Amino acid sequence: MRIDIITLFPEYFSGILDTSLLGKARARGEIELAVPRTRRFAPITVLRAYARRAEQLDRMILACSVLGLSTRKVGEALLPILGRAISPATVSTVAKQLDMVVAAFHARALKEPYRVLMLDGVVLARKTAPRVKPVG
After folding, report:
1. What CA–CA distance (Å, rounded) separates 36 from 7?
2. CA torsion sign, 59 to 74 to 94 to 48?
3. Can you give the pTM of this predicted structure?
4. Residues 37-87 pLDDT 10s
């Protein structure tokens, strides 16, 4: 079993790990323990290994959300593909990734001027007399 401890202060773990139960298990070869130096190590590689969902699955969930499916419908749509249901909470969590992208899109500067014609109208309902029937 491999255990990666990601910390900003790896020097604090060196003495503790040697004298603790983890240190004894490491000495017997039962576990492999690593405290990578964060300045020379990208923690995203370790974090990806422990991700609950694959990146491709997140892209499928986002695609369904962009197409306008509700959080409940996304789970139903992906059920035949995945063989298990995805909760609406999971869909919402994944869809939150789009919030920053959408906010940046809305805040972007327009590159060229646009001419706009705005029309406003009012619809009034009027009462009419009942239809007159011809006398025959």
Report:
1. 8
2. negative
3. 0.44
4. 666 555 556 556 666 677 788 888 888 888 888 989 988 888 888 888 888
